[in-house]
Structures are given as C-alpha cells and as structure tokens.
Amino acid sequence: MSDTHRYGRILLKLSGEALAGDNATGISPEELSFICTEISDIHNAGVAVGIVVGGGNIFRGVAGEDQGVRRTTGDTVGMLSTMINSFMIQDCLERRGVPAVVLSAVQADKIAELFTVQRAESYLSQNTVVIIGGGTGNPFFTTDSAAALRCAELGCDALFKATKVDGIYDKDPVRFPDAQKIPELTHQEALEKNLQVMDVSAFSICRDNSIPILVFKMMEKRNLLRAVTGESIGSLVRKGV
After folding, report:
1. 0.85 cut: is pTM over it?
2. Annotated binding site for UMP
C-alpha cells in the first residue's frame, strides 16, 4: 500500500437504503455500480476492505413491529435481507475483477461460509474484500453494532460510516437548514450529545477499543478514496485525550 494512505485496513458500513437510491426499496443498479466502483478504487490502491451492509432497503426488523411481527422474527428477516445485499455487492465487485467473499454471521452452509475472525483474516491477507452478512447473528442488534464489532475483531484502522450527508450535524440537515456540521468530536461527546448517526452500542464499542469513526458522504465520486488517504472530509469521531 502507498505511504500516502492513512488507513490500511477499514471496515466500511453501508446502509441498505444507499443501495436503493431514490427508490424506497429494492436495489438500484446505478447506485450499486457506483458504490462498487468506489470500493474497487480503494482495493486497487492496496487498502484491505471489510464491509457490513444493512438490509433496510428490503426489510427492517424494527419496522416489522408496526405490522404485528415479533421483534425476533423481524430481526431474523432483516439479517437475511443483509445477506441478499451482500451477495449483490460481491457479484458487482467480482465483475470488476475484485476478489470478494461473503461470510455469514448466521449458519448458511449452502451459500456462504460462516464468519470467524480467523477466516476473515485469511481472506483479507489474500487481498480479498470480505463482506460480512447477517449482522451480529443475533436479534436486537443493529448492523451499526455489527460493523463496530467486526471492526474491532479484525483490527481495522477505522470504521467508515457511509451516509447521505457529508458528516455529523447537530441536527438533521435535511430538515433544518441551520444545522451546523461537527467536523471532529470524541466518542464520549457523541454519546453525550445522543447523536443519531449511529446507535449507542456501536459508539460504545468504538470508544472502548479506541476505533476512530469517519462519517462521510458515500455518493460523491472518489470520496471513499479521498477518505482513506486522510483528506479532511466528513466528520471524525476519535478517542478523547
């Protein structure tokens, strides 16, 4: 990897909604292609990449409760939704000549290998993008928590949280034109401010393991490559002094 890269191994957290694009649900071929091109760029630059993707474009466990679905059932369906998204990303990357593998946090012998730290490490050492589906494998945990957990387990340099806006704001910038961007803050400050960009468990895991979190806008050309080189984009959540 070039010395110009600040981060040599990252865990990229993608939302399922990012794959849907302007649609409410499903997978947009254009959005999927854009995201995979961005990932290909940093892979080709020598960055080791792990990916955790949500499943909200297909089904959200929490939303299922409003339809009378038990939370455990809804979360199980949500975990399966992340598997669908994971396979679509894998296929898209491989069509670009990027080796990629899907590891599953839930038993799915016929379609994916079970996630273990040793297995993921082995693939990363072979320059293979590792896509981890199935969340944590347990209900009541978000894919943000899954991303933070995998980031810690795999010794990644940072957790990259891809969003639709260019960082963390003091309030929703879509709803409030006067929202102020917060370029940098500590994990503890993020927890105390109750920022909604990630859940409390994810922030806590990163704080306890001194993992920086970069929150940035994914759908802007070469933003991901700029981020791994350490350019000042998005918002950085870092360890306190």
Report:
1. yes
2. 55, 75, 136-143
